[in-house]
């Protein structure tokens, strides 16, 4: 049986352009069971996320999605476009949870490149600064945050980049989803 060569996805440092916005694919609908399991597995002791009567007392219709789950889902939607060629995540800033999300709602995400610069320590990488926005299927903004990503330079990984680039993934902002 022949070995299948794994293909890599994602953008290299040179493929990011300041001002480009990437509309991340798919979206994700969160189920109530996922929210309850996440609350249990992370040992979240806030009854807002697992007690319906308690959640109604401050005016929620039911238990909202835990914010950490919301952040992880929105982040996950951005990975293929932003960080599959990352060497490291350098931090998160200005994270704002703007309105509650409830099970059954679909999350969508987009990211805008705010800045990029070559690494000062090694010439085979660069730093990309992005702002990611999470929205519901109705377009309501529910989460925004910024992050910096240490990304490989394509020029330093040229052979790997050519051999492993999936068909159809364009290197320019016009190819952004």
SSE topology string:
EEHHHEEEEH
CATH topology: Thiol Ester Dehydrase, Chain A
CATH-assigned homologous superfamily: Hotdog Thioesterase
Q: Total number of helical segments?
A: 4
- Provide the helix percentage: 10-25%
The N- and C-terminal alpha carbons lie at a distance of: 35 Å
**Number of DSSP-assigned strands:** 6
Radius of gyration: 19 Å
Global shape: elongated
What CATH first level would be assigned? Answer: Alpha Beta
User: Uncertain spans, ≥5 residues at pLDDT below 50?
Assistant: none
Computed structural class: alpha+beta
Number of domains: 1
By CATH, the architecture is named Roll
List key phrases describing it.
177 residues; alpha+beta; Thiol Ester Dehydrase, Chain A; six-stranded antiparallel sheet; 6 strands; 21% helix
Give your account of this protein's structure:
- The chain contains four helices and six strands, in the order E-E-H-H-H-E-E-E-E-H.
- By secondary structure, the chain is an alpha+beta fold.
- It has a single domain, classed as Hotdog Thioesterase (Thiol Ester Dehydrase, Chain A).
- Strands 1, 2, 3, 4, 5 and 6 form a six-stranded antiparallel beta sheet that branches.
- The longest helix has 16 residues, at 67-82.
- The two termini are 35 Å apart.
- The relative contact order is 0.25.
- The mean pLDDT is 88.
